């Protein structure tokens, strides 16, 4: 998730004459991306996977701390899931290493008017879309950010179910597939209502 926006930063830091050590992390090998490009602009690359399928087994903070313990680190940039950035920030704060985090707050209009992306940084309300997304990681209220990111989690789950069921319904025969799902669990009852309504209002061609 964080490697793509991190790559140009890696390249810029290397071009400026810095020693760059990159830590790439993912749940499994298939989720490690842009490794070749990162290696081209890094003096060293450490790869961490949760399941140990590639590189070293462990989480991002283990890889970061490995670097900190073996050499002097002047600056850290962390980009990825908010929970990961929180714990990287806590780690680097312990070692007093200046750290920058790029936030992935929910955004609506992208102009700072809606306030959906607001986050507390250094005790002040900041708007990620116009004032960020990079901030001093040690000043970010990550608990508030994580709470706000979970604000639409239930709606997201419902939409995911609806999209999944609609896809299978259209692919395998709407009525049979939808009926099978309807019988599976009471959990899907609300989704079934949405799907049933959609199919009744769809064109005859879509219902086939």
Question: Would you mind describing this structure in some detail?
Answer:
- There is one protein chain.
- The chain is of the alpha/beta class.
- 50% of the residues lie in helices and 16% in strands.
- It has helices at residues 3-15, 35-40, 60-70, 82-94, 128-131, 142-149, 153-172, 174-184, 189-201, 204-207, and strands at residues 21-26, 44-49, 56-57, 76-79, 99-102, 118-121, 124-127, 134-136.
- Strand 6 (118-121) and strand 7 form a beta hairpin.
- The relative contact order is 0.08.
| N-to-C CA distance | 38 Å
Give the beta-strand count.
Answer: 8
pLDDT below 50 for ≥5 consecutive residues: which ranges?
A: 201-208
Structural shape:
globular
Helix residue percentage: 40-55%
Q: What kind of assembly state do the chains in view correspond to?
A: single chain
| Number of DSSP helical runs | 10
Q: What would you call the structural class?
A: alpha/beta
What kind of sheet is the major sheet?
3 strands, parallel
User: What's the helix-strand series?
Assistant: HEHEEHEHEEEHEHHHHH
Widest beta sheet: strand line-up: 1-2-3
Mean pLDDT: 84
Q: What percentage of amino acids are in beta strands? A: 15-25%
Rg computed from alpha carbons, rounded to a whole number of angstroms? 22 Å
């Amino acid at each position: 998730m964080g490697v793509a926006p991190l790559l140009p930063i890696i390249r810029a830091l290397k071009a400026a004459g810095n020693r760059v050590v990159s830590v790439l992390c993912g749940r499994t090998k298939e989720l490690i991306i842009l490794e070749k490009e990162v290696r081209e602009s890094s003096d060293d690359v450490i790869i961490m996977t949760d399941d140990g399928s590639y590189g070293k087994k462990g989480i991002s903070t283990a890889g970061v701390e490995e670097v900190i313990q073996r050499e002097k680190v002047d600056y850290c940039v962390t980009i990825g899931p908010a929970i990961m950035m929180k714990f990287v920030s806590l780690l680097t704060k312990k070692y007093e290493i200046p750290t920058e985090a790029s936030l992935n707050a929910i955004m609506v209009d992208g102009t700072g008017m809606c306030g959906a992306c607001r986050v507390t940084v250094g005790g002040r309300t900041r708007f990620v879309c116009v004032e960020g997304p990079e901030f001093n990681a040690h000043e970010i209220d990550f608990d508030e950010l994580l709470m706000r990111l979970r604000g639409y989690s239930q709606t997201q789950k419902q939409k995911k179910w609806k999209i999944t069921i609609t896809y299978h319904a259209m692919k395998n025969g709407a009525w049979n597939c939808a009926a099978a799902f309807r019988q599976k669990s009471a959990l899907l009852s609300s989704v079934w209502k949405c799907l049933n309504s959609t199919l009744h209002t769809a064109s005859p061609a879509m219902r086939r």
